[in-house]
Amino acid sequence: MLANCKGFTLIEATVSLAMITMIIAATAPLFTTVLQERQTVKQQLFAYEVIQNTLEEYRTTNEKPIAESPISKDGTDYLLTVRQDTESVIEICIKWKGKNGRNYEECGTGSHI
């Protein structure tokens, strides 16, 4: 009765399971790297937003922002620095360490109207 049963043998199932495990093990580090890079892009977008908001505030109030101020969001510490190039032009830079472990700095310049 069992002589005509068709199906997978234990060895075939074990080999298939081992192959699937190796594929998952090989792609797991890539997946974590992609997630870290995605979080770093979100941090970079936040940095651009801070620079733009600071420049807009300078343009509307005509008051120079605080020279150096720390900002913290979602467990990331940013350092905002403001430097006056000329009487009406300022440079705003923001530095932080990304979720991927690299240091980043973004800058923008602007003048009041």
Automatic annotation (TrEMBL):
Transmembrane segments: 15-35
Pfam families xref list: N_methyl (PF07963)
Record key words, sorted: Competence, Membrane, Transmembrane, Transmembrane helix
Subcellular location(s) of the protein: Cell surface
GO cellular component: cell surface
UniProt keyword annotation of Transcription regulation present: no
One GO-annotated biological process of the protein: establishment of competence for transformation
SUPFAM superfamilies membership: Pili subunits
Name recorded for this polypeptide: Type II secretion system protein
